[in-house]
Amino acid sequence: MPNFLPKKYANVSKLQTEKNKRTICVITGTRAEYGLLYWLMKEIQNDPRINPNLEFSGIAITRGNLWHAEEAEWHKILKNKYGKLVLPPIANRTEINMAETQGLDIFSYKPPRDPTSIASSSKATQEYATLADEIKKRIDNT
Questions:
Q1: Hey, how many other C-beta atoms are within 10 angstroms of the C-beta on 52?
Q2: What is the reported pTM?
Q3: Among candidates 34, 91, 95, 92, which has minimal Cα distance to 59?
Q4: Could you tell me which of 24, 30, 16, 135 has the C-alpha nearest to residue 85?
């Protein structure tokens, strides 16, 4: 397992760690990113300066093509293995690609007509708003 922490932190006293604990949230959008971040998250969990009760709170499939058999199967496997940890998926939609090419987030690219709403009639903004609401609920309940 790689060590991501500088050696200068190897001998941190228990008093310092209790006083300076940090809570960290890691959000990743793809299974490839999760694979790359896995060891970093393990290192964070094992670091005495960081919240020892750090929990894995969800898996989000973003820009997925769940109508493709392989991705639908992957989503089904995740749901079976992790249950409620699987967050609402985000489909790969043209408007997301268009927003990216213009350097905008989806909410700026497709703003709502109603100023009190975050999501417009766009399916992409609705999916991202649903995902954001679910993540916020999980963070607020910890």
A1: 11
A2: 0.61
A3: 34
A4: 135
